[in-house]
Amino acid sequence: MKNQWKENIDEEPAGGRTKLDWGPAIGPKWKAGERMTTEKSLIDSALRGWKSNVERADKLFEGLSPGQLEQEVAPGRNRLIYLWGHLAAVNDGLLPLLGIGERLHPELDSMFISNPDKSVQLTVSGQSLQAAWQEINQELWEGFSKFSASDWAQRHTAVSEEDFERQPHRNRFAVLLGRTAHVAYHLGQATLAQPKA
């Protein structure tokens, strides 16, 4: 196998560009014949998994009407708009956790993290949530594109230097893997809703 990207992460998908501008490929462009290290290969795979799950969420949630977003995944369970808002709020929290920047939408926490669904009035619409979702994920992707392999192995901001010395697995890469699984988990829940037309 040639040690270069078989396809660019930012390659335009069939049918045109998605709404989220994924920007440049992660990491350096590989030259023909240049070796991709194990570390770079693992990071590339993890970032592709992240991107795939965010795009799946885009496709699922952005195609829903306001009425469909109000549908529960099962009787008495979370609504689709709550799951989408929860994912947006958690992704927003990744910005400071990974040292990319400040949160863009901390106001989402009270509606989608601190309180269960239907316990507080939502002050967002599907349209405004979509805009926040796009903005958050674009900022994350731009931050990801600046990380080298060694940057991914660095501690995240919620762990002290002392704890990181004892527990080096508490790094940015581990956070990326965990949050990718988190998105996939809630997408699985969302597909149970079988939205009505």
Word description of this protein:
This protein is mostly helical and 197 residues long. The chain has a domain at 46-169: Four Helix Bundle (Hemerythrin (Met), subunit A) (Up-down Bundle), CATH 1.20.120. Helix content is 51%, strand content 0%. It has helices at 38-62, 66-69, 80-97, 108-112, 126-144, 149-152, 161-166, 172-190. Helix 1 (38-62) runs parallel beside helix 8 (172-190). The longest helix has 25 residues, at 38-62. Residues 1-20 and 24-31 have low confidence and may be disordered.
Task: Offer a few descriptive terms.
197 residues; mainly alpha; Four Helix Bundle (Hemerythrin (Met), subunit A); 8 helices; 51% helix
| Overall strand count | 0
Main sheet makeup? none
CATH superfamily of the domain at 46-169: dinb family like domain
Strand content: under 5%
The overall pLDDT average reads 85
Quick structural gist:
By secondary structure, this protein is an all-alpha fold. The protein has eight helices and no strands. It has a domain at 46-169: dinb family like domain (Four Helix Bundle (Hemerythrin (Met), subunit A), Up-down Bundle), CATH 1.20.120.450.
Which helices and strands, and how do they pair?
Blueprint: H1 38-62, H2 66-69, H3 80-97, H4 108-112, H5 126-144, H6 149-152, H7 161-166, H8 172-190
Helix pairs in contact: 1-5, 1-8, 3-5, 3-8
